């Protein structure tokens, strides 16, 4: 369980609403201070600040609109409606127009707080005009945290696309047939280990943090040995008749040299992430690769948890890349997860050798007898605790009895 807690500590959680709460608290404190210092001009100050802040983005939207109309109207928008597509894309939406209109209306009703009208006009024009160049140069652009939040919220990361492709193009097709393939494999391999628990009957998917994987597991750990392949699954896919999907069975040796057979493989999208980090044109460095691996793990886990086709047929194993000094780290990690899966399963069948009573038996020995009066329990070998059983009555149902008056009144 310690390993699983460490694994959960590596996965980034979705960002919350703390920035919005802090921004609202800061605005409330500042507005309250203005109310205390000059309450008669509070509405004017707030309206002027809101108008300046919203007029700048509107002017920047005009600059974006010029580019979109001249060069991208047909290619990016395919001639769609100007008002419903292009204007909102350039920032002329309700979130910008409505606050600007309300601020202008309030400022017109209460008047601006500055004593000189020329000063107010100069300030409004200067701040609004300086906003577009500062925004275009990236000085007022979104930070890396904001870009990451937008990409994660709108599912625009590389990891999201790879996770959905891995699920829709592979896992959803093969996992429903995994248990049947293992049963056929065990029937045809008499020398196979007899201990195929629930943990071994799942597809173990390895996801290394460094995304650097080898094509043969035995090259990374000599305690892992290739045994055989499961029966092939042939599925008609994308015009290919009988496309073959296969899994490999490995025998993992523990500290005592005992072999544990399981179906294990790497997540193939890790090859894409690693190759992208090696290409300079992809703009994908090592820190970005690690972040995308973690997002891939989190996204794939969320997808599989809500998939009825894949439920209880897989196990994601996140491999930390800080254990290069241990040559058997991979085998120990696989065995640890298999053992954990076995411990999480509950036994719903009676233990071997325990006597069970048939639910439809009507003999007297099937019913639990009362303890004897002489206190002698030797003739009643029934255990004190037993598996719950269903008891059915063979008597015909009787009609409900009417109310009986038994009071003295």
Automatic annotation (TrEMBL):
Family that this chain belongs to: Belongs to the STING family.
InterPro entries noted in UniProt: STING, STING_C_chordates, STING_C_sf, STING_LBD, STING_TM
Transferase as UniProt keyword: no
Keywords, sorted A to Z: Endoplasmic reticulum, Membrane, Nucleotide-binding, Transmembrane, Transmembrane helix
Transmembrane segment boundaries: 21-37, 43-65, 86-110
GO terms for biological process, alphabetical: autophagosome assembly; cytoplasmic pattern recognition receptor signaling pathway; defense response to virus; innate immune response; positive regulation of defense response to virus by host; positive regulation of macroautophagy; positive regulation of non-canonical NF-kappaB signal transduction; positive regulation of type I interferon production
Keyword Endoplasmic reticulum belongs to the record: yes
Domain STING ligand-binding: 157-342
GO molecular function: 2',3'-cyclic GMP-AMP binding; cyclic-di-GMP binding
Biased composition (Low complexity): 359-368
UniProt membrane topology term: Multi-pass membrane protein
Pfam families according to UniProt: STING_LBD, STING_TM
PANTHER family for the chain: STIMULATOR OF INTERFERON GENES PROTEIN
Reactions catalysed: H(+)(in) = H(+)(out)
Segments forming domain STING transmembrane: 44-155
Disordered: region residues: 356-388
Name of the protein described by the UniProt record: Stimulator of interferon genes protein
Compositionally biased spans, kind Basic and acidic residues: 376-385
